[in-house]
Amino acid sequence: MKHPTATFRVLADDNGPDVATLANGVRAVVFRLPHLATAAVSVFVRSGSEHESARENGISHVIEHMAFKGTRSRDCQEINLDAERLGADVNAHTDKDHTALHMRGLARDAGTFVGMLGDIVRRSTFREAELERARNQIAVRRLGAQEVPAQLPEHAALDLFALGRVRPRDELLADIAAVTPLQVRGAFAQMLDAGAAVGLAGRIAGGEEERAAPLLARHATEA
Questions:
Q1: Among 46, 105, 108, 200, whose Cα sits 20 to 30 Å from the Cα of 175?
Q2: Does 220 have pLDDT greater than 70?
Q3: Is 115 exposed, middle or buried (0-12, 13-18, 19+ CB in 10 A)?
Q4: Strands 27-32 and 196-202: what pairing?
Q5: Rounded to whole angstroms, how far apart are CA atoms 202 and 61?
Q6: DSSP for residue 180
Q7: DSSP-assigned letter for residue 136
Q8: pLDDT digits over 117-158, tens only?
Q9: What is the pLDDT of residue 180?
């Protein structure tokens, strides 16, 4: 499907965001705040329990934990060092309907943040060694949640909605351990197919959002 060239419109008032659909279908939302010295860039993909099948329930959480763990051109340490050299913060989160990757730092580096996040979206490798770390992190977090009474009903409800039953602890751990790199790659490709959005906020130079189009192209994964 061919998408029109980006045309921005300002919402509500002069302080509203610029919203556009870029040439390749990626949606961009830009909050231009010229009084700030910093900028934040985020990439959002459609995922989370709302979009997962029963067979792949929880896969979005795995992808979140692996987001900054390595690409075809950089390993985990290089990604973190590149961010540290800029004094930038990196983070990720998963909600019921999306997964997001974030970078925040000096405004002059906003274009670099777009490039770094684009590298992660297009070229993440999801290696087995990093997947094992993610499995362990998620297992510890889920076991810890079972020790907090207030969180028990929430996790039980999520199982009921997704699976129609509540998994015992051993089954939950077995499901986490069974996730494979192939499953993760396939699920992430499906997330990108469902649509991606990029958000920029802070002192954003004109045209930075357009750089997101080739970097976040849905099918632009190199061999």
A1: 46
A2: no
A3: middle
A4: parallel
A5: 28
A6: -
A7: H
A8: 989 988 999 999 889 989 998 899 888 888 899 888 988 888
A9: 92
All domains of the chain in start order, with CATH: 9-215 (3.30.830.10)
The bridge status of strand 27-32 relative to strand 18-21 is: antiparallel
Mean pLDDT of 56-77: 88
All residues at 6 or more sequence positions from 17 whose CB lies less than 8 Å from its CB, including other chains:
10, 11, 29, 30, 31
DSSP per residue over 18-81, as a string? EEEE-TTS-EEEEEE-TT-SEEEEEEEEE-SGGG--STTTTHHHHHHHHTTSBBSS-BHHHHHH
CB 194 within 8 A of CB 169: no
Task: Number of helices (H) and strands (E) in the chain: give both, helices first.
Answer: 8, 7
Q: Tokens 């094992």 map to which residue?
A: 132
Joined together, the tokens standing for residue 48 give 């989370």
d(CA 29, CA 210): 11
Q: What's the predicted TM-score (pTM) here?
A: 0.79
Rounded distance, CA 85 to CA 13, Å?
37
CA–CA distances in Å: residue 77 to residues 80, 82, 87: 5, 9, 15
Number of other residues whose CB lies within 10 A of the CB of residue 132: 11
64 included as an active-site residue: yes
Cβ pair 125, 70 in contact under 8 A: yes
Task: At 23, list the tokens.
Answer: 């040439």
Given the residues 52, 56, 64, 209, select the one marked as catalytic.
64
